[in-house]
Design a protein that fits this description.
Layout: H1 2-12, H2 15-21, H3 28-38, H4 41-44, H5 49-53, H6 60-68, H7 72-82, E1 87-91, H8 99-102, E2 110-115, E3 124-128, H9 135-150, E4 154-157, H10 163-173, E5 178-181, H11 195-203, E6 205-209, H12 221-231, E7 235-238, H13 247-256, E8 260-263, H14 271-281, E9 285-286, H15 290-310, H16 320-327, E10 334-335, H17 336-343, H18 347-359, E11 363-366, E12 370-373
Parallel strand pairs: 3-4, 3-7, 4-5, 5-6, 7-8, 8-9
Antiparallel strand pairs: 1-2, 2-6, 10-12, 11-12
Helix pairs in contact: 9-10, 9-15, 12-13
């Protein structure tokens, strides 16, 4: 019973976060203002009316809700949902809150998660695009996701029809990890035809949403959730997009967040290519292969993960095979063939591990197809 008691206690500590997230008429900035003003989230719920009025100017409904206390029925329902295996609530105060997401304007106060919560801090690439792609666009999304996932990147998208769904499937086919950021509460799947895909994503990744349970697929939710897709990621790849596509909103947010933007060019006659061409004219990186993206993201991934690596115990960053391969790489350039001979590993295994180590900033490419160990 001790384990059950600990779980209940842990869930109870999440109740104020759930209540604050549902506060009527209060946006994310005001929610953070409340925490900053009162010093802790618990203090918000013990404040007097006059104290609350100093922050919630003119927001009578929100003040009345705080003084009355949370809706016990809703709170009980959400806590019951969180008690199910694989269900999590990641709050702003949690040390597992993704570092990259903390950096964006208006980060989410909480994230509901089904699946691997720690995956949100892994190096990610967002892949987005048209809900009505051409057959080539759909295949490009799948192929890029498959190759990039095989190189160690988590593929993040919005589980929409078209490019999003193809990207998730490409990552799953590679045996990699994928994150789907939803525009609804996680007690429902939207679009409904992606129910099976959602189950597969949970097995090899995570479903994520900032929206409380019961939130329907309102049109205004999806541009809001797009900032999380780009905010979790080192960069965003736009596969196909018309000029009015929501994918361009994600790309704009990625740019505002200081992240890389990649775009695949297409036919000058295809409406689905015009958004990508506009992005390229505005400075997005034109890409033709997955390697084009990996070459750009390597240094960024190393910087983004530096704090995490510094907090890891020695030897925790790599598995035993990668540790052994790293021992065979000196600070002088060495050829891939020499590494294969020294390590006894296959060419495919060496290439895959080198890509992952490059993304971690542990090795760098040299002229002549050689690699060398980075000083740390």
């Amino acid at each position: 019973m001790e384990g059950a008691s600990t779980q209940i206690s842990s869930l109870d500590s999440l109740a104020p976060w759930l209540a604050l997230r549902r506060l009527p008429g209060v946006g994310i900035r005001t929610q953070f203002n409340l925490i900053e003003h009162f010093g802790s989230i618990e203090a918000i719920f013990t404040a007097s009316r006059s104290q609350l009025e100093t922050v919630l100017v003119g927001k009578t409904e929100a003040i009345d809700t705080l003084l009355a206390g949370p809706d016990e029925k809703l709170l009980k329902s959400e806590l019951e949902w969180l008690s199910e295996p694989g269900h999590h609530l990641l709050t702003w105060s949690d040390p597992d809150y993704p570092v990259l997401l903390r950096e964006i304007p208006d980060p989410p106060l909480v994230l509901y998660i089904v699946g691997e919560r720690r995956l949100l801090s892994a190096r990610q690439l967002a892949i987005v695009g048209s809900r009505n792609p051409t057959p080539m666009g759909r295949e490009n999304a799948r192929a890029f996701a498959r190759n990039l996932s095989g190189a160690g990147l988590v593929i993040t998208s919005g589980m929409a029809l078209g490019v999003d769904g193809a990207a998730h499937r490409g990552a799953l086919e590679a045996g990699g990890k994928t994150i789907a950021v939803a525009g609804t509460g996680l007690d429902r799947v939207y679009p409904a035809r992606h129910r099976e895909l959602a189950h597969e994503i949970v097995k090899q990744g995570a479903l994520v949403s900032e929206f409380p349970l019961g939130t329907p697929p309102l049109p205004e939710n999806f541009p809001v959730r797009n900032r999380i897709i780009s905010g979790l990621s080192l960069g965003t790849l736009v596969v196909e997009a018309a000029l009015q596509s929501g994918s361009l909103i994600t790309a704009r947010m990625a740019n505002e967040q200081g992240r890389e933007i990649f775009a695949i060019p297409g036919s000058i006659h295809a409406p689905q290519s015009r958004g990508c061409h506009a992005l390229i004219r505005q400075g997005a990186k034109l890409v033709e292969t997955a390697q084009d993206i990996l070459e750009e993201l390597g240094p960024l991934a190393a910087v983004a993960l530096q704090a995490t690596h510094e907090n890891m115990p020695p030897g925790a960053r790599l598995d035993s095979k990668m540790e052994a391969l790293l021992e065979h790489i000196g600070h002088d350039p060495v050829s891939i063939d020499a590494l294969i001979e020294r390590s006894g590993l296959t060419a495919d295994a060496v290439s895959s591990m080198l890509l992952e180590m490059e993304l971690d900033g542990l090795v760098s490419n040299c002229p002549g197809g050689k690699v060398q160990r980075m000083s740390r």
